[in-house]
Write a structure and sequence with these properties.
By secondary structure, this protein is an alpha+beta fold. The protein has one domain. It contains two helices and six strands; from the N terminus they run H-E-E-E-E-E-H-E. Strands 3-2-1-6-4-5 form a six-stranded antiparallel sheet. The longest helix has 8 residues. The model has no long low-confidence stretch (mean pLDDT about 90).
């Protein structure tokens, strides 16, 4: 199912999907497969507050190395939008 915000993001040149962190690498799982991420990727995770949808930019290094208190990757499993990544 495609949502209104998804269409806007795609028209703005973003690729959308769910963040995955495993085996020392990070990527975006999309409907079409996966988008490998790197230090050149503009990664924005989606969160919500009382005013609606918000996007927070994170770095590739944060995505790889930030952990929950239990040791799980902090930014895995988020809905996100990504631009760039090509070198």
């Amino acid at each position: 199912m495609i949502y209104y915000q998804d269409l806007i993001d795609r028209m703005d040149g973003y690729r959308i999907g769910t963040t995955v962190v495993e085996n020392g690498e990070a990527y975006l799982a999309t409907e079409d497969g996966r988008v490998d991420l790197n230090t050149y990727s503009q990664i924005e995770i989606q969160t919500y507050d009382d005013n609606g949808i918000k996007y927070h930019e994170i770095t590739y290094e944060e995505m790889l190395h930030e952990k929950t208190p239990e040791g799980w990757p902090l930014f895995a499993g988020f809905y996100a939008r990504v631009k760039g990544g090509e070198q």
